[in-house]
C-alpha cells in the first residue's frame, strides 16, 4: 500500500494529522537474528516508526569495497519493519556521531592528509558521492512514495555543533536529491539558535529538529522561535530524546529514573513528535565503539551500548519499557499495544581453557606487514582498526640502562625488550622516558600499540590524535631509531593462530575455550571477563568487542545468532598478562512488569 507524507503546519500521513512516535534501533548494533524481536517490541509499545543511522565506515570498510550483507543489510531491516507496520526515518549522513568509531566516517579518509572530511573539500565530497551512489540506490525503493516505509531522511547530523558551512550542507542535500531521494528531508541539532542557525537548511525547506533529553517546553519554544524567524509554522519534533546515556571505561554506569522519564516523554508528546534515543541500544561489536574528546585525554566508550534504554542490551523490556507502556496507554487510550517478546538466556556455566598462544608466535597472522626505515601510523598502511606491532633491533651502547622514548603514539602502548615487558603507557604518559636493561650486541625492541577508538564528536574529530599507531618516531638515548617491521592486526575477525599448548604467559596472548551446545541451548549469553585484564573476545571467529578490567562493565554480550549446535570456539585476546584459566558464561537479567 502506498502512503503520502507531508510537512505543512502539521505532519500529514495520507492527508491526516500524524504524530511520529519513533524509537531508535540501529540495525548495525543488533544481530540480524534479533531484529524482529526489537522491532516487534517497538510496535508492541504502540509506536509507529523506527529510526536508524547508517554508518559509512561499516558499509565501505575499504575504499570502493561495499558491504550490505549480514548485519549491514539495511534493506532487510527496513523490509522487516514494514512487515510489522512500522514507518522508518533513516539518517544516512556521512557523519552520524552515535558514539560510533570516528562518528561513522571511514578511517581510511585520514590517510589523505590533504583532505578535510566533513567539509566542502571536493576530495571529500567525491568520496561521499561514490558512497551515495551505492547507498541511495538501495534506499530509493524503500521510500514511502515508492511503496516502502521511509517517511523522512536526514541531511547531516548535529552539524551546528561542528561548523556552519552551508555550501557543504547543500552539497549533501543535492547529492541525495540527485540520486532519487524524494521524501521530506530534515536536520537535527541542539535546539538553541546558534546550533540551529549553523546546522540547518530551513531556507531549503529542510525540517529542523531538536535533540535533547529534558525541558521539552523550553527547548520546543526555542525551536518554534527559530521556525518563526524564517516564516515557518512547521510542527515540532525531537529527533533524539535521550532516555539514557552511554558509558565510558572507568566510570560508573549511568541510569535514569523511569518515572522521571515518563514525565519528560509526556511533555514532548504534548507539543510534538518524538524519537526515543535509544529504544534498543545494542552492542558496539568489534572495534566500533566511539570516544569522547577531552583537552588532554580522549575517553573511549565501552562495548555495551545498553544506554539504559527501554530495551536492555539483549533486547528485553526494562522497567522503563513497562512504565512507558503504562503512561502511553493512559495518555492515548486508543493506542494499540501488545505483550512484548522476551528472550531467554543460556544458564550459567564455567569453561576451562583448552590451549593458548602468544602474539609474538603469530606474527605471520598479521593482516598488514610492512618494512621501512621509519614508523608509520595505521592509516598509512591501509589499516583502520585493532593493534599494530613495531619491531626493530637496537644495540647496547652503555652499561647503564637505556633511555627509550616513543615520541607520539595513540592510544596505549606496551614496550618489550627481548620479549620482556618494560613499560605500559597510556595517552598522557606516552613520550616519557622508558628505562630498559639491554644485553651486549643486538636487542629486539617490540612496541605494541592499541587503537582504542576514534573520537565521534567535538573539536578533536579531525585532530591528528585520530591517526592511530606511532605517528612520529622512537628514540634511544637522543637519536631516532630506524629500520622497523610493521605487523598490523586489525582483528576484525580471528586470524589463523598457532595454538600449541596450555602454558603460563606474560606477553599478549590468545586463550581458547570451547562450549558444546545442543539445538535448544542456542540462547543468548554473556562472557564474564572478571579476572581478565584488557583485550577483545571472539566467538566462532567473530569479534564481539573489547573488555577492560577497569569496568564499569566486565562482561560481553553474545547474541544467540553467533552460536551454533555443536562445538563453539571462544578466544580471548588479552594484552596485560592478566587472565584466568576458567571463563564463566552468565545469563542476563529479565525484568517482570510491575503490577498496576
Automatic annotation (TrEMBL):
Residue ranges of domain Beta-galactosidase 1-like first all-beta in the record: 378-488
Keywords for this protein: Glycosidase, Hydrolase
Superkingdom per UniProt: Bacteria
Ranges of residues in domain Beta-galactosidase galactose-binding: 508-568
Keyword rRNA processing among UniProt keywords: no
Classification via Gene3D superfamilies: Galactose-binding domain-like (2.60.120.260), Glycosidases (3.20.20.80)
Domain Glycoside hydrolase 35 catalytic: 10-329
Family membership: Belongs to the glycosyl hydrolase 35 family.
PANTHER family reported for this sequence: BETA-GALACTOSIDASE RELATED
Protein name (Swiss-Prot/TrEMBL): Beta-galactosidase
Species per Swiss-Prot/TrEMBL record: Collinsella ureilytica
Amino acid at each position: 500500500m502506498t502512503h503520502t507524507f507531508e510537512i505543512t503546519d502539521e505532519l500529514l500521513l495520507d492527508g491526516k494529522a500524524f504524530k511520529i512516535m519513533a524509537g531508535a534501533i540501529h540495525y548495525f548494533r543488533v544481530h540480524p537474528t534479533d531484529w524482529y524481536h526489537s522491532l516487534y517490541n517497538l510496535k508492541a509499545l504502540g509506536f509507529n516508526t523506527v529510526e536508524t543511522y547508517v554508518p559509512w565506515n561499516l558499509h565501505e570498510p575499504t575504499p570502493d569495497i561495499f558491504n550490505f550483507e549480514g548485519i549491514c543489510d539495511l534493506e532487510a531491516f527496513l523490509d522487516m519493519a514494514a512487515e510489522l507496520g512500522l514507518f522508518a526515518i533513516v539518517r544516512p549522513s556521512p557523519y552520524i556521531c552515535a558514539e560510533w568509531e570516528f562518528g561513522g566516517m571511514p578511517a581510511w579518509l585520514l590517510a589523505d592528509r590533504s583532505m578535510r572530511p566533513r567539509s566542502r573539500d571536493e576530495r571529500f565530497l567525491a568520496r561521499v558521492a561514490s558512497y551515495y551512489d551505492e547507498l541511495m540506490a538501495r534506499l530509493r525503493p524503500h521510500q514511502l512514495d515508492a511503496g516502502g516505509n521511509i517517511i523522512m531522511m536526514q541531511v547531516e547530523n548535529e552539524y551546528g555543533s561542528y561548523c556552519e558551512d552551508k555550501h557543504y550542507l547543500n552539497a549533501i542535500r543535492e547529492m541525495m536529491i540527485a540520486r532519487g531521494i524524494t521524501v521530506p528531508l530534515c536536520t537535527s541539532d541542539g535546539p538553541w539558535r546558534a546550533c540551529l542557525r549553523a546546522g540547518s537548511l530551513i531556507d531549503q525547506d529542510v525540517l529542523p529538529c531538536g535533540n535533547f533529553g529534558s525541558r521539552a517546553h523550553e527547548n520546543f519554544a526555542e525551536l518554534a522561535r527559530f521556525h518563526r524567524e524564517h516564516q515557518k509554522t512547521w510542527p515540532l519534533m525531537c529527533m533524539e530524546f535521550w532516555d539514557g546515556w552511554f558509558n565510558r571505561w572507568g566510570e560508573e554506569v549511568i541510569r535514569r529514573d523511569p518515572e522521571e522519564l515518563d514525565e519528560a516523554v509526556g511533555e514532548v508528546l504534548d507539543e510534538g513528535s518524538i524519537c526515543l534515543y535509544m529504544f534498543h541500544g545494542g552492542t558496539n561489536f568489534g572495534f566500533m565503539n566511539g570516544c569522547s574528546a577531552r583537552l588532554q585525554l580522549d575517553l573511549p566508550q565501552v562495548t555495551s551500548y545498553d544506554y539504559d534504554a527501554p530495551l536492555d542490551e539483549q533486547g528485553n523490556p526494562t522497567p522503563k519499557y513497562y512504565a512507558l507502556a503504562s503512561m502511553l496507554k493512559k495518555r492515548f487510550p486508543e493506542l494499540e499495544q501488545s505483550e512484548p517478546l522476551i528472550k531467554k538466556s543460556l544458564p550459567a556455566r564455567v569453561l576451562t581453557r583448552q590451549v593458548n598462544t602468544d602474539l609474538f608466535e603469530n606474527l605471520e597472522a598479521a593482516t598488514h606487514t610492512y618494512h621501512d626505515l621509519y614508523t608509520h601510523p595505521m592509516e598509512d598502511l591501509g589499516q583502520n582498526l585493532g593493534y599494530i606491532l613495531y619491531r626493530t633491533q637496537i644495540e647496547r651502547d652503555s652499561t647503564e640502562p637505556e633511555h627509550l622514548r616513543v615520541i607520539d603514539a595513540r592510544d596505549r602502548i606496551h614496550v618489550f625488550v627481548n620479549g620482556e615487558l618494560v613499560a605500559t603507557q597510556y595517552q598522557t604518559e606516552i613520550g616519557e622516558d622508558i628505562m630498559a636493561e639491554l644485553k651486549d650486541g643486538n636487542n629486539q625492541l617490540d612496541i605494541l600499540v592499541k587503537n582504542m577508538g576514534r573520537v565521534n564528536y567535538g573539536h578533536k574529530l579531525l585532530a591528528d590524535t585520530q591517526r592511530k599507531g606511532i605517528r612520529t618516531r622512537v628514540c634511544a638515548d637522543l637519536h631516532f631509531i630506524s629500520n622497523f617491521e610493521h605487523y598490523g592486526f586489525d582483528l576484525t575477525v580471528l586470524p589463523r593462530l598457532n595454538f600449541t599448548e596450555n602454558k603460563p604467559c606474560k606477553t599478549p596472548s590468545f586463550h581458547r575455550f570451547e562450549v558444546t551446545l545442543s539445538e535448544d541451548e542456542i540462547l543468548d549469553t554473556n562472557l564474564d571477563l572478571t579476572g581478565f585484564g584488557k583485550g577483545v573476545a571472539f566467538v566462532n571467529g567473530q569479534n564481539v568487542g573489547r573488555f577492560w578490567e577497569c569496568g564499569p562493565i566486565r562482561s560481553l554480550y553474545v547474541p544467540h545468532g553467533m552460536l551454533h549446535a555443536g562445538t563453539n570456539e571462544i578466544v580471548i585476546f588479552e594484552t596485560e598478562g592478566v587472565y584466568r584459566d576458567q571463563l564463566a558464561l552468565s545469563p542476563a537479567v529479565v525484568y517482570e512488569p510491575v503490577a498496576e
